[in-house]
Amino acid sequence: MYYVYLIQSVSSPDEKYVGLTVNLKKRLSEHNSGNSIHTNKFKPWKLVTYIVFTDKKKAKEFEVYIKQGSGHAFAKRHLW
């Protein structure tokens, strides 16, 4: 399974992050322990939403979509 996940900083709620992983629990732990250079400064993080895919290509495409213009607007309206 492939997880596209959306997390939000607890200390700075305006900070959000979208990622892709095969192990959601481990990845969230990595974000909160400071192992991710992109999210280290705004820890701790909480999981807001995740979407599960069986196809890696579709998961990657969705992650890219969410990080771009219309996908970002979609996420803001429906997923955050």
Give the helices and strands, then pairings.
Layout: E1 2-9, E2 16-21, H1 24-33, E3 45-53, H2 56-66, H3 69-78
Antiparallel strand pairs: 1-2, 1-3
Helix pairs in contact: 2-3
Descriptive account of the structure:
- A hairpin with a 6-residue loop joins strand 1 (2-9) and strand 2.
- The chain has one domain (2-78): GIY-YIG endonuclease, CATH 3.40.1440.10.
- By secondary structure, it is α+β, with helices and mostly antiparallel strands.
- It has a 3-stranded antiparallel beta sheet.
- 39% of the residues lie in helices and 29% in strands.
- It has helices spanning 24-33, 56-66, 69-78; strands spanning 2-9, 16-21, 45-53.
- It is globular.
- The two termini are 22 Å apart.
Shape: globular
CATH topology: GIY-YIG endonuclease
Helicity, as a percent range: 25-40%
SS summary, helix count: 3
What is the number of E strands? Answer: 3
Termini separation (Å)?
22 Å
Mean pLDDT figure = 95
- By CATH, the superfamily comes out as GIY-YIG endonuclease
How much β-strand is present in the residues?
25-35%
Major beta sheet, specifics?
3 strands, antiparallel
Question: What is the rounded Rg?
Answer: 12 Å
The tally of structural domains comes to: 1
Name the helix and strand elements from N-terminus to C-terminus, one letter apiece: EEHEHH
Cross-sheet strand order for the largest sheet: 2-1-3
Q: What are the low-pLDDT stretches, counting only 5+ consecutive residues below 50? A: none
Return the CATH class.
Answer: Alpha Beta
Q: What structural class should be given to the helix and strand makeup?
A: alpha+beta
Reported CATH architecture: 3-Layer(aba) Sandwich
